[in-house]
Amino acid sequence: MAAIIDCGVPAAGTEREFDFFRPGQDRRCDKPITTIFFDLDNTLIPTRKGDAKACGKIADILHNEYDLPRDLATEVTITFLTSYRRCPDNPDIPLAQWRTQMWEDALPAGRKHLAPELYPRWVEYRTRYLAPSPEIISLLQTLRLQYLLGIVTNGPSASQWEKIDRLALGRYFDCILVSSDLPWAKPDRNIFYAACHYLGVRPEECAMIGDKLETDIQVSEWTQECSFGCLDM
């Protein structure tokens, strides 16, 4: 697994240094697809569903083990999840400290001391529910026999790498890009060009698979040069 962090990718504004075909050029090419890029959240892993299921388990714990009324336990987890999705990490403090504070903020007065106990249990459930399905793992193992594989994902660096590392996804990929580590985020075509540059492939040899048309698969220079697909998870 190779991550693009300080690996010689040109700075923002220097994308013309990439030696790729541009729209309007003669791009007739009989090269087959050699490289497949995947989005991470809600494509490779069921982030939205996994987060909700993990919070549901914490609501059960608050109700069954700590005697919070069911509606209050649910309200606590909804408050946490809303805050978490708004700001999943804080670069100024460690992830565990930031998220424990978010649980503390969501808990009612008199129960805030439960935050340090709830956080690791939430992490455990979340990791379980975010795990790629056996079908996804089988697909990646099969594709890896024939193609270069990469992840191109938007999001805060620490939060995205935590998921990648905890789920041991690096073993399946030749290149992983997280937008916060680079000057660009999807749908900026330069993050895709950076991935191609790193792997030594041209856009017309690549396919992009994601769950959002507006970020993963946008009508732009990139989609004129590569193949694309959309998954509904």
Features:
five-stranded parallel β-sheet; Rossmann fold; 2 domains; alpha/beta; 43% helix; Four Helix Bundle (Hemerythrin (Met), subunit A); 10% strand; N-acylneuraminate-9-phosphatase activity; disordered N terminus; 233 residues; disordered C terminus
- Could you name the CATH homologous superfamily of the largest domain? HAD superfamily/HAD-like
Biggest sheet, spatial arrangement of strands: 3-2-1-4-5
Could you state the order of secondary-structure elements as H and E?
A: EHHHHHEHEHEHE
Count of alpha/pi helices: 8
How many separate domains? 2
What overall geometry do the principal axes of the alpha carbons give?
elongated
Major beta sheet, specifics? 5 strands, parallel
In angstroms, what is the radius of gyration?
20 Å
- The fraction of residues in strands falls at 5-15%
Q: Between the first and last Cα atoms, what is the distance in angstroms?
A: 25 Å
Number of distinct beta strands: 5
> Segments where pLDDT lies below 50 for 5+ residues?
1-29, 228-233
Looking at the structure, the CATH topology of the largest domain is Rossmann fold
Tell me the name of the CATH class of the largest domain. Alpha Beta
Which whole number gives the mean pLDDT? 84
Give the name of the CATH architecture of the largest domain.
Answer: 3-Layer(aba) Sandwich
Describe, in short, the structure shown.
The protein is of the alpha/beta class. It has helices at 47-64, 70-86, 95-106, 115-130, 134-144, 157-166, 189-199, 221-225, and strands spanning 35-38, 148-153, 175-178, 206-210, 227-230.
